[in-house]
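Key result, reporting period 2: structure in, sequence out.
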């Protein structure tokens, strides 16, 4: 797979709510991504924090 195909697959997994699968997929294609591996991994990390924050917000009492 080329870099663009990998990124599209990761986006698809994230849109389906499959954060763990997206992380695993990135790890599996680490060599294919080269220098983009860290960038994509960081993006996933940022999304995970955002998702967790939104979920916590749903349970906050007002």
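The corresponding designed sequence is given below.
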């Amino acid at each position: 797979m080329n870099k663009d195909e990998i990124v599209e697959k990761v986006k698809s997994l994230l849109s389906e709510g499959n954060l763990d699968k997206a992380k695993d997929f990135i790890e599996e294609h680490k060599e294919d991504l080269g220098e983009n591996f860290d960038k994509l991994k960081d993006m996933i990390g940022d999304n995970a924090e955002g998702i967790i924050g939104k979920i916590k917000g749903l349970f906050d009492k007002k």
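The helical segments are 3-15, 19-28, 30-33, 36-59. The longest helix spans residues 36-59. This case is discussed further under Risks and Mitigation.
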